[in-house]
Amino acid sequence: QVQLSESGGDFVQVGGSLRLSCTATGRIFKIDDMGWYRQSPGKGREMVATITRDDSTTYADSVKGRFTISRDYAKNTMYLQMNRLKPEDTATYFCNADIDAYYINDETGLPRSHGRTNYWGQGTQVTVSP
Q1: Is 12 helix (H, G, I), strand (E, B) or coil?
Q2: Choosing a second label site near 8 at 20 to 30 A (CA), which of 14, 56, 68, 69?
């Protein structure tokens, strides 16, 4: 029962900053690629930023230079630092991750992967007022 949980969404004025967090819990062997996506009313989900296990990052053109994605491997947590926020950034932000769940091998006592699965968080609301 691996789960992702986002936090940090809030109301903020134009030009303000927020830091979103996404924490994975459960029987996690390792977390591979992760990303932040957002959805506004009447729009589908769009990629905001992604980060691989080797820390390679990508950003949507609309947030490039303003948002920074990062991760803490020890805490199974991903962050999105959002600066110079604009009204168009208003959306529900979702955490996404490819995660290998694990089991303990009875013979060796070592953790083994059950295979990679893609997970989504429940979303956190970011509202930027003019």
Answers
A1: strand
A2: 56
Cα(25)–Cα(61) distance, integer angstroms = 31
Q: What is the pLDDT of residue 83?
A: 98
Phi, psi for residue 75 in degrees, rounded to 5? -100, 0
Q: SS in 3 state form for the chain?
A: CCEEEEECCCEEECCCCEEEEEEEECCEEEEEEEEEEEECCCCCCEEEEEECCCCCEEECCCCCCCEEEEEEHHHCEEEEEECCCCHHHCEEEEEEEEEEEEEECCCCCCEEEEEEEEEECCCEEEEEEC
Q: What's the rounded mean pLDDT across residues 53-79? A: 97
> Residue 17 pLDDT > 90, yes or no?
yes
Q: Give the mean pLDDT of the chain.
A: 95
